[in-house]
């Protein structure tokens, strides 16, 4: 008479012929999975005890412990052997391990990376594998991404990036028992091969020189030594911070951000007319013509909207940098919109979340968004060879060590 737990191959064949599934919950192979795993664990503990005895240590088996294991063939109770000395560490199914298939975890992380909520992931996993998971289990599995995030955040960077953009996206994150709005600053670089790369993500509750210095110091410490042109969103203190760490870098404030911020202070009834008068400023063919148009704008609107015109004048040095370059370079640097595609990917992933219980829960999801975006960055930006040759002329000597002649 066979043991209750013994797998009956003849019976399994009959079940297959009767139309029963070979795998999955209640599949033909489900009892075999438990039997094989437990047999392997028995072999492990016996080998461990044998080694102990040969080393002169007294040790022997000491019963078993039971835990629930999830696999692609359903859920079952696994009996893991113990040893008297307590030194046995099973390798096939480790002490804190609750699954015996990477397939489930990989599927969970994949769905998480597509922006599915925990509830949806649990539903899909149950439909596919007939395995019931809790939100705590999903969280524990996705937390494995955090180690990858930390490694990614500290990875070495290239020595020089011709262009770097920085922009922010805001999220609600729980901090000290309450939810606060924090800015996530994305630093996007364009490498010498013309391909995009996210250099880092930085969370900040408040902006300022110290924050910007910490961001730039981190980039510098990871190997970045030179940036030709940095395009930023006009945040106070950033141009000065860049010059502190990278004194040779040209800093271009984003024209689109400047326009958006200006229109906040212009009455809606004047929007159309004001924009018509503003276009000749930022669309001018040269800095000189742009400055003439800015004076005309000031003469017409300066008294009505002094804050707006004062902002353009105060920031003009960094707003007007792009005028010195040809169209190929202007298109690349005059705005940080190139980074918006990354933030759109972020929003797609986070739209089901609302708020986040901690910074890690947000960072691991944004990291998945970066991986998704990076998969599409296989080609250099348009007209890159022409742009690079122009940069070599404008920034004489700074690219010589990196370009093949």
TrEMBL record:
Residues 65-78 have a biased composition (Polar residues). Keywords: DNA recombination, DNA-binding, Transposable element, Transposition. It holds the Pfam family Transposase_mut. Residues 54-81 are annotated as: Disordered. GO terms for biological process: DNA transposition. InterPro entries: Transposase_mutator (IPR001207). GO terms for molecular function: DNA binding; transposase activity. Required for the transposition of the insertion element. Belongs to the transposase mutator family. This is Mutator family transposase. It comes from Halarcobacter anaerophilus.
